Amino acid sequence: MGNIQVDLITALPELIVLFMAMLILLTGLFAKNKIIIYALAQFTLFAAAFITVDTHTPAVGYAFTGMFVDDTLSDVLKLMILLGTAVMFVYTRQYMQLRNMFRGEYYALVLFAVLGMMIMVSGQSMLTIYMGLELLSLCLYSLVALDRDNAKSSEAAMKYFVLGALASGMLLYGMSMIYGMTGSLNLADISSALQEANTKNPVLILGLVFIVAGLAFKFGAVPFQMWVPDVYQGAPTSITLLISSVPKFAAFAIAIRLLAQGLQPMVADWQDMLLMMAVLSIAIGNLTAIAQTNLKRMLAYSAISHIGFLLFGLMSGSLNGYASSMFYISAYVLMTLAGFGMILLLSRKGFEAENLDDLKGLFQRSPWTAFLMLVTMFSMAGVPPTIGFYAKFTVLQAALQAGYIWAVVFAVLMTIVGAFYYLRIVKLMYFDAPLDNARISAPIDMKFILSLNAITLLLLGLMPQTLMNICAAAIARSLQ
Amino acid sequence: MLLTHILSVSIWLPILAGVVVLLFGSDSKASFTRWFALASSLAAFFATLPLYTKYNFSKGAFQFEEAAQWIPSFNINYHLGVDGIAVPLILLTSFTTLIVVIASWEVITKHIAQYMAAFLIMSGLMIGVFSALDGILYYVFWETMLIPMFLVIGIWGGENRVYATIKFFLYTLLGSLLMLVAFIYLFQKTGSFEVLDFYQLPLTLNEQILIFMAFFMAFAVKIPMWPVHTWLPDAHVEAPTGGSVVLAAIMLKLGGYSFLRFAMPIAPDAAHYLSGFMITLSLIAIVYIALVALVQKDMKKLIAYSSISHMGFVTLGFFIFSQLGLEGAIIQMISHGFISAAMFLCVGVLYDRMHSRQIADYGGVVNTMPVFAAFAVLFAMANSGLPGTSGFVGEFMVILAAVKFNFWVAFLAATTLIFGAAYTLWMVKRVFYGEVANPKVAALKDLSRREFLILALLASMVLGVGVYPKLITDFTHVSATQWLGHMAISKIPMAGL
Q1: Cross-chain residue pair A472–B73, CB shorter than 8 Å
Q2: What is the pLDDT of residues B335-379, one digit of tens each?
Q3: Which chain A residues contact residue B70 at CB under 8 A?
Q4: pLDDT tens, B189-242?
Q5: From the list A385, A412, A424, which residue is nearest B144 (CB)?
Q6: Model-level pTM?
Q7: Helix, strand, or coil here: A123?
């Protein structure tokens, strides 16, 4: 430790993203043809991804006096974040061009957000985690308001900012209490200090409550879900796609770092909190989604219920449970990329395909697109042979193993409610007559990646073992 | 290679053919699409035939087994195998698919490729359900099957199709998910999803009852048993003819088969403990639903209720726990597969000409369609249990077994011979006999060669099984004996051991 060269090499992917984000910001001012910026951004992501894979070792490495960790979990999650963002860039290019938002700031801000996520994923100290989180959040707030003249976007950004700042405050407050009681910011030190401390100490419990509340806000779990529908609906769809997808990896990572690494000795306390949030998220997310007519808003509530399922895995408090959560979040991000990608595909200049009715008769307009959306919807509903089924299967299995049988039965019953609104989308696409017959025009690369994305949901549904192994290995190697 | 993987070929051949139809077929290439679908359903039917010719009748254990690792981290295996209960049902499935493809030849004119593909894929999935010996593999087939059926009813169905198909999907999903929880619970106990491991697992009576009820939710909806039957009349009425045929002929049997494969052998003590309850539900289905059928004005609805009533015999036969009752129930499943398929096809024949399913719109059809009327009367007789047809054999065996079990149970079950005849023959009388009701009926054309072919095929099966039920009992006999042997041994762990 203390060797600056080792530190820098360990954090090389982050440094690349940082450097390139600044470069893009500069290039954006001068470049006439903005496609250069797009190419640079994609290059950045792939370069960072390549280095992440290339420098991967099964061992755990530390940098910056133990504040930054490079383990399998962080490598896998970083890789998923980088690739997810690359896919998102493909989906949003045309959308942003048509809406005059295809600018350097967009790519720079997203890359800074990616940097924030990467720091969160590698955070081994509460300070690092908080820094990463703030970097991510600040970028997201401004991205939501990227469409300056749109009143709805501005309102959403304001809401997001006020509530997000509050949540960050809570998280920080909780962290300070834990720091006060354990005398350390480093998660490993906190864990060993807590092993000897009395975990029934009210200050510790209070600190834990604040941390869990902060996390719940970032996840968008009930009762901290209020921002989710408004922000999802108000933000430009491309930004909704971003918010709903890769940051969930980062949120998952800090949940693992804080709860499963740092506060593991208090597992019995946070399990109960997560249980309540999980059950409420599944119930409120699914029940409210039924009443929505706006597709983005519906997917927002669907996201809340998915987060509930994710928490089922986390609250099991076992390696198996964490791995199932990680599998769930990977599946969820794949599904949500496909879902919002579809909205982007159907949108045109001056037209947002964001109402449920815009999907009417898609089967007759474009059977292939309808089929892709069908796969995505059944995957979200958790019907085999899609990955969504195994995602639900693994978390329910973990929760059942931990003894939460009635919570599992409840979640299963709520899945039926969920199935209804996903089926409604299939119904609109397949059983109704189209409202407009405009041709679906999208760049070929977007069509290809979107098809690949949806087909992956199906293929992983037939062969889920590889992804399961990756998740299990990442968790097992990083949390011993 | 092919002979050692008969089950895999039977499952995947139609599914792959379905994908090919989906990719290359279209309305503009209607003729290619139809012929390709016919050729593949024929090939799929022949692929299942070795199950019949190569089956070892003296063995009770699972045959044609195939096992491979699938998802090792949960010890989920691709494990297939069939016994004498599954083989006849698999043959029924591939046969019915062939019939459906022929039956929809000229009837379906929109989205032909998708229609044919849906039925081919469904056929593979249903065979998968009948042959899976791993809980999750079974579950995946069972659930996936819902998707094509959901689309078939929703795209090609009648006016109220959206309501019917969503109701169908949600009802079935509700039951299945509880079954999934039961599977995971069993997995915690045994460490695998192997059905054969589940069979050996000792469970307390309370556990068994909960597990049985979870399975019951899934299978009772599918069969369907009273009072969770209400999705069926809706689904049947709205589904296109092919959809109704597959629903009645095979999908309902999946529920019955699954009782035998999962719910009862995994929780035998609970099955005995709850047999009174199950018999009561079966009798309500037999008697009450038959009365409901009597007052129906829509032909499809009448046949749908008749199906529920006939399936009551199946569950009744299961829960009497006797060789005769069990074999009778299995024959009843097969026979009902042929008869209900034929009845729905008959309604389809009329509907294609008149676009009405209302009994009141018909009358005197025999005058204009004599050949068709002959077939329809034969199937109606079979439906009401005339000796010499397959409908008689199963019902008679179950009633006979019930007499030994309890006279009043048998008495109530036997009323179906009256009610069944009443509602079926009364419908036949109103539709086929009497004066020609209106000019539209007078203008009806008799069967085309294609329609004649499918009805003749079904008629020969109905008569064949009716005259020579040994065709099926050869399969079921050893397996049924073994099944009853398993059911007779309690799985409750002994206290103090």
Answers
A1: yes
A2: 998 999 998 998 888 888 888 888 888 888 888 888 888 888 889
A3: 465
A4: 888 888 888 888 888 888 889 999 999 988 988 888 888 888 888 888 888 888
A5: A385
A6: 0.90
A7: strand
